[in-house]
Write a structure and sequence with these properties.
Chain A is α+β, with helices and mostly antiparallel strands. Chain A contains 3 helices and 5 strands. Chain A folds into 2 domains: 1-39, no CATH class; 41-94, Irregular (HU Protein, Chain A), CATH 4.10.520. In chain A, a hairpin with a 3-residue loop joins strand 1 and strand 2. Chain A is elongated. Among the domains of chain B are: 167-337, no CATH class; 385-493, Membrane-bound Lytic Murein Transglycosylase D, Chain A. In chain B, helix 5 packs parallel to helix 7 (233-269) and helix 7 packs across helix 9 (282-303).
Chain lengths: 94, 494
Amino acid sequence: MNNKLFLKELSKRCEITADEAQALSQSLLDIMQKQWQEGDTISLTGFGVFEIRKKNERISVNPTTKVRMLIPPKLVLTFKPGVMFKEKLNDKKL
Amino acid sequence: MNARLNQKQLADLLYNASGLSRNKSEQFVKNFFEIIEDELLKGEQVKIKGLGVFKTVKIEERESVNVNTGERIVIDGYIKPSFTPDSALKDLINKPFASFESMVLSDFQAEMISSSIDSSEDNDNTIDDETTIDEESVVIEQSVEEKAEIEEITIEEPETVKEEEENAVDEQLSDTEQITEVPEAEKAISAEVEAEATAEPEPVEEVEATVEPETIEEVEATVEPEPVEESEPVEVAEPIAEPEFEQEVAEETISEQESEEIAEELEPAGEPEPIGEPAGEPEPIEEPVSTTTISSERIDNKNVISKSKRNALRVLVWIFSLVLVVLLALYMLYPVIIQQYMKWQYNSLKSDDNTEIVVEKVQENIAESVTEDDNVQTDDVVAEKVSENEIRTISEVSAEDITRGDPSEIKFRLNSADERKDLADFTVKDTVNYEIVGTLAEHTLKKNEILTVLSEKYYGTKKLWPYIVKYNNFEDFNKLYPGMKVKIPRLKNK
């Protein structure tokens, strides 16, 4: 499912137009991004947790050239699925 | 900051941002994630622009071991939802650290950093636990900037070092000039030292003379560790030569004066001990000492900025000069000491000789009378006491001698047989246990005959050769020649 289909589905469920859905989703994403930039965690019950994690700097060695590289620290967005979500996924499969 | 937002709060924020009703915004947020969930449940992936891709990953079942029981367990495979953020979103979130780039490290840097990372590894927590991103980022930025600086410094270092070297060389040049001046100044002080050296070290010197090598080694030991710091062997080496020479010359002049004084002082008090040899030996040691000290001095000179270091340098110079002076003095005294030693030995020999002469004079008279009696007696004694082998040899020898018709020789042989008999009892005993009792024989040396051979021939043992030396008063018993007449002393057990 791509972005277009997603928005279409969203507009259908919320009974709003596609344009509105796009605008709203955009504003929602902006809000989330803003929160993440401030280091906030967004946890959605039944779905999962979006969390910003800091990866420490580290030294990696290129196994072929043996050249050591310093990988700088960075911030990454991680998603940890909720227990309910995982169970649902696996139940359905089984 | 580090807040934990739930769905409701998110909806509130959306409500504030958009003109949508509170209800609708809540519903929107709910639907937003429900669609993702539903799609994932269908086994599809969801791609949302500005957020990322949600998809399901199937984890295969795998075997593991229960840590407690050691049993093998099969962990069932399962489906896991995964989320990969958009690259745009990634960049946005990593904005604080965006300035950092991965860089290639040298080994040294790698070690430095790995140690620092090890220490900071405890901080590898989520941002929730940490204070603020901004503060942290500042700290990290600093650290990385520092590393960058380190790199810059490492690059710059060679140049700076070169500059320093140049400066050092300049300093050295100026220092050498100073040193050329210093000896002159030193001479004034050296006068004092002379006084000291003549006054104080002299009694010590005698004691030290035997211990000298050790003391020098000690000096070396104290001096040597310093030149290890030497970093520019070539550049330093050249300037070393000149000041060394100058100093040595300056000190030699001093030491010559001194040594004369020392000689004067030592001669009356001079003990005839073999000081000369140990004193002579250290000479070769002297040179390495001087070079090392000077090299260390050079290095010191390089670094000399503070007065304390200058003082330390002066102390070194003084120690070095003192050692040199002492060595030179001993070197100059070497012949004197040797002479003394020789005299002493000569005297001791003379005294020995006197006693011997007295003994000989007393016993010669007796010996002359005794020898004849002895000869008569020995014939009897030989028949009685001497072992069968000896009897054979003697009889053979005597037979031979008789055939030659040399009665004197027979006498000697018989005498020697007599001596042998005596020696048979005392062969193992010390050679000191005998006295010279007149002349046993006069032997004309043949080729390849040495004193031990004579001793063996006349006394039956090699041990007694020193008596032959004693009796003959050889100028040098190592220089005997064929045809030389050697008197063989008659020996008697004390």
